[in-house]
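Can't paste images in this forum, so I'm doing it all in text. The chain is below; anyone willing to post the predicted structure tokens underneath?
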Amino acid sequence: MRTRALVPLLIALLCVFSTADASLYETDESVIIEEGTTIPENVILTGRTVRVYGDVLGDVLTGCRYYSQHGRVFDNVFAACQTADILGRTEDILIFAQTVNISADTTGDIRGAAQTFNIYGYVDGDLMVGAESVYIGPDAVVTGDMYVGAAKVTILGEVLGDVKGGMDQLTIGGTIQGDVEAWCDDFTFIGSGEIKGDLDYHAENEYNFGVSPNVHGQIEFIPRVEDEGEQNPFANFIFGLILLVTALVTAFLLVGVWRRGVEGSSIAMERRPGQTIAVGLLGFAAIPVTAIIAMLLVVTFPLGIMLLAMYPILAYIGWVMFGIWLGKTLLEGLLRRDVSLWLAAPFGVLISGILAYVPWIGWFIAVITTTIGMGMLIMQMIGLRKLRTW
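Text version of the structure:
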């Protein structure tokens, strides 16, 4: 389920880049498409801030810290950023961010993952979201189905299709015209909130709805067993999305805060790939062994604890840095030009994430990429190569 869901991300990105010769590419600290401007082609925009006030007749692909859209995008928006405010009309949206606010009307589907995902406009399609908090505002309308995985889901607007997903808490203050199938233990109806279709809920304990005026159809309780996570089609998918958006945010933080280190680690991989891989293998195997040995001695016990605590952090950051290097290498090969780290970071992390979910061999690919990334990180930290700037 997770692999099939993530593959379209790669396909969509490759489709954009396959038409790169007919695209406008802009990168700067701040990129602005002025009001009154009309761009008749696809645009690739990277920088700390990207603001679109004009109209784009093609797609928008952006990697940045903050994305703001007031103009209209006639095709699709593909965005990876920390914060996104979309106030201009668009078609499909595929987005990964920490905070997403969509106030505009869309003529297609919205898919994405974030910590906070807010919908205030008209969605003429399906909504598929993984987040900590999902909020559907009182004036929002989703004409299709809603697939969601979150800790907290609040629906104050109207959903014309079905709602399916897993959440800790579901609050309904609007209208769901279709059926609801939810993995949830906490239901709350507020105001005139209602489900006009059936309600099937998976929970540990049966919820006492009584004769509920809020549910017009049938209510069915399905006991949730401990291993049901393997059967839940949403749990694994949403977990993967959350991990992916966390990795994207980490990548942007590394580019913004430790750009010189990111560049240096990639240079180490380019100039000394054999030594980098060897250092990674050594670090991957030796650090936990060294930590355990150090913990056996009273004097070095604190050092062992510190090494053991740092090990997963080094591995995780190494994996993200490998993704940034991979993205830059692939994009420069495709576009045949220098590419900003703000664009390389989300592209490479997305591909690394997809590869990690390949059936049977995904775990092995993840180990290899993490090992190489750890080598890149260690090479940078101990200064085994000279720095230069792209």
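The first helix runs from residue 2 to 18. Residues 1-22, 384-390 have pLDDT under 50 and may be disordered.
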